[in-house]
Write a structure and sequence with these properties.
Distance between the termini: 27 Å
Strand order of the largest sheet: 2-1-3
Strand content: 5-15%
Structural class: alpha+beta
Order of helices and strands: HHHEEHEHHHHHEEH
Helix content: 40-55%
Oligomer: single chain
Radius of gyration: 28 Å
Number of strands: 5
Largest sheet: 3 strands, antiparallel
Shape: rod-shaped
Number of domains: 2
Number of helices: 10
């Protein structure tokens, strides 16, 4: 919720609250049909204050004329007033949704927030284990000590996890959680592979 509040307080909140307008692409595609398959130069003008396209127009394929049109639109729609003028060369204007996706509403922001939520959940899950426990899990996972492929506790402690000051307590914690099986030698429980992967 905090991220949404920050977006709501931002000066460009209307742009971030804009809707994905797929009709624009349909209209541009219909306009392009007369010259479909040929490279067309398009000028798009986006109003960041309002979160919408102001116009889209096919301009000359002649480079000098296209640049002249672009300059004219830049003067008419200045950046200081939160307009963005873009010159695009394409043979299929429908691809603008992928190449310039930031103009097409907040769906991408929502996805980003959902991914952030998932990352935060993953981090909180990792924090259920102390650092020593995670280091032991990671070491055993990297060296493929799963199921029948075991390692002696002394070897794990003295050779691979020398710097784990909480080794005894951390190993005990992993056994209690059922992530490590065996008393000595030990291995990772294959049945808990998904949980183990989420911790490391």
């Amino acid at each position: 919720m905090g991220a949404e509040e920050i977006i709501g307080r931002s000066s460009d909140k209307r742009a971030l609250g804009g809707h994905v307008n797929y009709d624009i692409v349909k209209t541009m595609s219909a306009k392009e049909e007369q010259s479909y398959g040929q490279l067309n130069n398009w000028i798009l003008v986006f109003d960041w204050a309002d979160g919408n396209f102001v116009l889209w127009d096919i301009v000359s394929r002649e480079a000098n004329e296209a640049v002249e049109a672009y300059s004219r639109y830049e003067r008419e729609f200045p950046e200081e007033e939160k307009y963005e003028v873009v010159l695009i060369g394409t043979s299929n204007i429908a691809t603008v949704q992928q190449t310039h996706s930031h103009y097409f509403g907040i769906e991408h922001h929502v996805e980003a927030l959902q991914q952030m939520d998932e990352s935060i959940i993953g981090l909180s899950h990792r924090n259920e284990l102390d650092v020593g426990s995670r280091r032991i899990l990671l070491t055993m996972k990297r060296r493929s000590y799963w199921g029948k492929n075991t390692i002696n506790v002394a070897t794990l402690k003295n050779h691979f996890c020398r710097n784990v000051g909480t080794f005894e307590d951390s190993l005990s914690n992993l056994r209690t959680r059922g992530l490590i099986i065996g008393s000595d030698p030990v291995s990772l429980d294959v049945k808990r592979a998904q949980d183990i992967n989420s911790y490391v």
